[in-house]
Amino acid sequence: MKKSFVMGMVAVVGAALFAGGAWAQTETPKAASFDPALLQPATLAAKAPETFDVKFTTTKGDFVVRVTRAWAPRGADRFYNLVQHHFYDDASFFRVISGFMVQFGISAHPPVARVWNAAPIKDDPVKQSNTRGMVTYAMAGPNTRTTQVFINYQDNSRLDGDGFSPFGKVVEGMKVVDALYSGYGEGAPSGRGPGQDKVQSLGKAYLDKNFPKLDSIKTARIVMPAAKPAEAPPADRPI
To answer: What is the pLDDT of residues 96-108, one digit of tens each?
Structure first.
């Protein structure tokens, strides 16, 4: 199980080969439309609120992830900064395995993907379990978390022992997450789905051309959790 994540995350080693290949030569790259701050990962280091929600508007519908910083502080802070600067906008759900998980988090823009792939964060201790709906970073071994995350479709608590530390949970719209297109299956080279090295080096244009049925994120925005109703004041005691 861990091997599949390792293979996906380290595939970027061959990205430069594809960037100069025949496919790249026949495609006209889209103009950059991302926050320039995303090209400076070290400057995006704000501390996240103790709890915050992220609303994902996707091609399949909306869902909301509630992040709890105490579960995985480093992971929560990274996610907060990425969402604040619209990193996940236009990103595709490129690895959707029915009965297992859905993975996303490679930027639609190759220059952005490149710099964040070289900006890992240290691990957080595993305080929560990878049960259904929990959101966790993908990784290629210790201290390799960058921007890719996955949402568990089932109880994957077997991943807990490998260091996969959940930092949030889908609290609204899990039916939308369940409905994300999964027909391509596992990614290359193990399956016929997208190769992560090509996603890294060629961006969303590669996915749109070769995997047009994939769902994607339109926007991801931070919204504060709904406030709890104020408690009624205690009734006056009779004298």
So the answer is: 999 999 999 999 9
